[in-house]
# Entry
Amino acid sequence: MATTSGVTTISDVKMFEKSARRHLKTLSATHGVKGTLLIWKPGENTDRLRKKYWCAMAIANHLQQVINERERVKQESCDHDWEYEHSRDERTRYTCKKCGLFR
Ligand SMILES: [Zn+2]
# Structure
């Protein structure tokens, strides 16, 4: 990355961001990777910050759905090994040592 007097300029950051986004798009097409690059400046326009925030939240929510679905599949195919939990609240007494499901 080019620098001016040892300091990275905003222009350099924007060029890096554009280049990285293009590379991510290519990786998404060739390798199916998901995700994005999140870069912001503290003094950036509030509407732009809000837009980036919601974009990040949408990605986090999607990732959570992927994780939840994998846990559900794992729990449905598990031949549970229940273990009594002393530290849990009144309703939860047993947790499966293999998949983390509780009852
Ligand atoms: Zn289990």
The mean pLDDT is 87. Residues 1-39 form one domain. Helices lie at 10-31, 46-76. The chain is about 50% helix and 5% strand.
